[in-house]
Amino acid sequence: xSVLARPPLAPPRADARPAQLPxxxxxxxxxxxxxxxxxxxxxxxxxxxxxxxxxxELRLSRCTLGxxxxxxxxxxxxxxxxxxxxxxxxxxxxxxxTGAMDEALAHGRAIALPxxxxxxxxxxxxxxxxxxxxxxGAVATLPLxxxxxPFGALVVERAQPGFDEETLARLxxxxxxxxxxxxxxxxxxxPLARRARRELARxxxxxxxxxxxxxxxxxxxxxxxxxxxxxxxxxxEVSGRARLEGAxxxxxAAPVDGxxxxxxxxxxxxxxxxxxLVDLLDADLKLERERLAAxxxxxxxxxxxxxxxxxxxxxxxxxxxxxxxxxxxALVDDQLARGRxxxxxxxxxIQGDLAQxxxxxxxxxxxxxxxxxxxxxxxxxxxxxxxxxxxxPGETGTLALSSLPWQREALVVERVAPIARAVDGRNxxxxxARLVAPGAALRPGLVGxxxxxxxxxxPLWSWSAHAVExxxxxxxxxxx
Length: 480
Prior knowledge:
α1 runs antiparallel to α2. This protein starts with 25 loop residues before the first helix and ends with a helix. β16 and β17 (404-423) form a beta hairpin. With 480 residues, the chain is an alpha+beta fold. The longest helix has 27 residues, at 312-338. It has helices spanning 26-39, 43-58, 90-107, 126-135, 165-174, 178-188, 192-207, 213-231, 283-308, 312-338, 459-479; strands at 62-69, 72-78, 111-113, 138-146, 149-158, 234-246, 249-253, 258-263, 270-271, 276-280, 340-342, 347-351, 361-362, 367-373, 377-384, 396-401, 404-423, 426-435, 447-457. The chain has a six-stranded antiparallel beta barrel with strand order 6-15-18-17-16-19. 26% of the residues are buried. It is rod-shaped and about 170 Å long.
């Protein structure tokens, strides 16, 4: 089994190993390493390039790089995978190397065996002793980190001489620029879930700063508000445009052909049952009535004379003419009576301004006025087709009129119209509702908005369900 866990890395070929770099200052060498790391394709290639150049620069027998991955150290690159002692397994070598890296990261400083100055370090070095027993020679581990955050470690090995403080310090200077670049690459290759967890942990740590108390309070308030709208079972409402109408409306039409004589009412007037509304010109009808009345008198006289003479034929003829005259006279009287149009019930005139139409001709059946009951009103609510399935008779709601925005009127649904109609480019159903306690200021023809309670549901789910249904309808309309 390969020494490296993920991904398996093959040792570099002899012809691919970079030539030993000429002597130069550490700054130039660090820049060269930085450029090589940036030029690599991916984290694995950059790590191989780094350990290969470090091994050539410092004349190392082996250089191994490990990175922290989810709380554990993972080996990512090494210049040589062969074991110093063939009796040892590759798994044990990898275990010893990661143990030495974790030990150096735990101490937060470089550890070398054999130590150039033994008394300079008094910490525990069990893992380094075990690693040296496996590989032989001198070993050293340099912890790597960025901004105080542990990132990984380098294990370097060579036969002779050991690693002194100056060599380890130079190793740190060489990788000072390359380590942040490696971390950028490692972060870029992380799974999205792990990246999100890390950013959340960083944000949570930043919120603990004493200077961000206001931000913590704001986030807490936002979380509480979100929890409320996501879990509180509030009333779910369906709203739509509404208009107020009389419970009973009647159209007053012209009973006969004629001309408008007198108009007694205008829209907005309240009238009592039997009150005159419109009078039509009746001069011609009156003249016709006088003519028919004279004819009736003549026929009655002829009938009386025939009876006096015992002339049965003349009497029968005169009687028929009397009946005909009476029928015609009754018709004219009925027309005269219908010339005055009266209110059929206590009502409010809501349409039909004839004040400027005196003398205007009208034909039988023409609409003159529209009346609505005053004591009873109904509310017609236009409900969108997406929400109509939730509305049922008996449900309650409130009405807010444009002319009375601060006044709410209670509603009870009585009927849902089964036919839709198009309004402003969308299909709506008309829902009829009655007012529970209609106010005296209400008038037919007022408009506003009505909200109907159709159940209980958290607001968040209500909003999201409505949006999903609209998207589904749009999708169906698009694919149809």
